[in-house]
Amino acid sequence: MSRILTSPAARARETAEILAAATGAPLEVSPALASGRSDGRALLRLAAETGAGAALVGHNPELAEAVILAAGREEEVKPGAIAALDLLPGGPALAWLRRPPKM
After folding, report:
1. Which of 48, 60, 71, 101 has its CA 20 to 30 A from that of 40?
2. pLDDT surpassing 80 at residue 103
3. Closest-CA residue to 88 (of 75, 70, 72)
4. How far apart are the first and last CA of the chain?
5. Secondary structure class of 13 (helix, strand, coil)
6. pTM of the predicted model as reported, rounded to 2 decimal places
């Protein structure tokens, strides 16, 4: 992992800090990932600008919208889900989506 961008919100930062500790990737706070700040298209642009190997930690519904746009179909994106995007010349595409286990 090359770097981690996170929302300034405490819970998102906590999650990003766990990911940073596990991977050794540097952590950056990005106001664009704050809840209500960007829509799904803007987050896909941010992912493309940030480049391969980066992680974005943010909030629904914005991240869910980005995943659905990248997938080109409806997807259930619950809190705690993890998605990977392929950064293709035509725009990001959903590579995979892992949902948290049902309790």
Report:
1. 101
2. no
3. 70
4. 29
5. helix
6. 0.91
Say if residues 76 and 85 touch (Cβ distance below 8 Å). Answer: no
What is the C-alpha radius of gyration for the chain, rounded to an integer number of angstroms? 13
User: How much of the chain, in percent, has pLDDT values that exceed 90?
Assistant: 91
Dihedral class, residue 27 (left if φ above 0, else alpha if ψ from -120 to 50, else beta): beta
pLDDT digits 0-9 by tens, 10-54: 999 999 999 999 999 999 999 999 999 999 999 999 999 999 999
Bridge partners, 27 (sequence order): 4
Tokens at 99, concatenated? 């949902």
DSSP summary character for residue 26: -
- The residue among 66, 64, 71 whose CA lies nearest residue 99 is 64
In sequence order, which ranges of 33-75 are alpha helices (DSSP H)? 40-50, 62-71
Consecutive H or E run containing 54: strand 54-57
